[in-house]
Amino acid sequence: MAPPATIPMTTSQSTAGTGAQSQPPIATPAFRAFLSRLSSSIRQGFSQRRPWYELIDRSAMARPDNLTDAYSRIRRNLSYFKVNYVTLLAVVLAFSILSHPFSLLVLLGLLAAWVLLYLFRPSDQPVVIFGRTFSDRETLGSLMVLTVFVVFLTSVGSLLISALLVGVAIVCLHGAFRVPEDLFLDDQEPANSGFLSFLGSAATSAAAAAAPAVASRV
Fold this sequence. Notes:
With about 220 residues, the chain is an all-alpha fold. It contains 9 helices and 2 strands, in the order ααααααββααα. It has helices spanning about 10-15, 30-45, 50-55, 65-80, 80-100, 100-120, 135-155, 155-175, 195-215, and strands at about 125-130, 130-135. The chain has a two-stranded antiparallel ribbon with strand order 1-2. α5 (about 80-100) runs antiparallel to α8. The longest helix has 23 residues, at about 155-175. It is a multi-pass membrane protein.
């Protein structure tokens, strides 16, 4: 009598059979820590938001005398309304993406690929596609190539760039026409802590939250 057929098992299946199943990426402590730090950074950033009525005060609108005056106003308004301006950019970007469902699905798929396949994937679960096991370096390289392709070589990239340009134009237009003489920065806030420094601090917080997961794969 012929012996019974056997089904080959991968490493992850063998581990599951012994009862030592790994947590899914979204349930790992690193992912929960990332969400916690990200939400904390967002709350801290929104605590610096200026009242919206100051942003849309029509009595404070006036045409700048020249380009130098417009540039000076933009710099001061960026320092004062930086959180409000970031919110406006986010609204413009979100509206553009939501109005194009295909681009939204592509971006969500790209984000899911980064989260599930690299950033928060348990280190004991290799990526296996069509029977081939990919190392961490190969996975990272593939995700980077995919990101460059999506952002720069498809309509998704043009949509994002167009939305950002529209948002920046709105911010600069408002900053040039908003008279900043009645605006006062907090005493504890440096005068040069402008728009780019706020974005830099937000990016640093997000990078610091994801750093442990990334460092474990280097």
